[in-house]
Design goal:
Layout: E1 8-9, H1 12-21, E2 24-31, E3 34-41, E4 43-45, E5 53-59, H2 64-67, E6 72-85, E7 102-117, H3 120-135, H4 149-156, E8 159-174, H5 181-193, H6 197-207
Antiparallel strand pairs: 1-8, 2-3, 2-6, 4-5, 5-8, 6-7, 7-8
Helix pairs in contact: 5-6
């Protein structure tokens, strides 16, 4: 990934927090001369290893299950947010007109070693935690125990778990850091007005300026 220094982000706590809020990632692998990509919801475990680890599950029929049997190298991409930036949002546009459109975005790349999990107890734990996390905002959260045990056991025969030990973690936060503070503040204000408050707040936090 092309990564100018002013867009590079390596603060582990911040990266993990964003990954947990946006846990749907794209796993990129290379095998037998071909690239492949799979899109999966992940559990992010922050307290394991130098950079944490990722847990997920896939169908046994997915070719990825075979690729990951031998500690495969993988890249997992988390797209946190992105937005078009209009030149009209820059204060400088009204001063000198030397502005052009661009795209602001936040992505996180996790490189690591992946392996398959066959242990049923471990796999059940992965599924239970994933379900509990994403059912938490329901009025009556669904639990695995709501379904017949034999049904769950049968379904589990058709999946395997994935564990990825993260060996490198970096974010690209392209949030107008190359602009002056007045432009950053005016863009953040425009984003907030268009329902992009999270990105606006992150932009201001990263650039250490206050919205006017």
């Amino acid at each position: 990934m092309y990564l100018p220094p002013h867009f590079e982000e390596r603060r582990l706590e911040l990266l993990h927090d964003l990954m947990k809020k946006h846990p749907f990632g794209c796993v990129v692998t290379y095998s037998n001369g071909e690239l492949d990509a799979n899109h999966l919801p992940f559990e992010i475990v922050s307290d394991k290893g130098d950079f944490g680890k990722l847990l997920a599950h896939i169908s046994r029929q997915n070719p990825l299950a075979e690729v990951l049997k031998n500690d495969a190298d993988v890249l997992v991409i988390f797209r946190i947010d992105d937005v078009y930036i209009s030149p009209n949002w820059y204060v400088g546009k009204f001063e000198h007109h030397k502005v052009v459109p661009t795209w602001n975005y936040v992505v996180i790349h996790a490189k690591g070693k992946a392996r398959i999990i066959e242990d049923e107890k471990v796999l059940r734990g992965i599924l239970a935690r994933l379900t509990r996390e994403h059912e938490s905002n329901q009025n009556v959260p669904w639990k695995m125990t709501d379904a017949p045990s034999e049904f769950i056991s049968e379904r589990m025969k058709h999946i395997v778990g994935i564990q990825i030990e993260i060996t490198d973690l970096v974010g690209k936060f392209k949030l107008s850091q190359n602009r002056n503070k007045n432009d950053i503040s005016s863009v953040a204000t425009a984003l907030a007005s268009k329902g992009k408050s999270d990105l606006s707040n992150l932009m201001l936090s990263i650039s250490n300026v206050k919205e006017t």
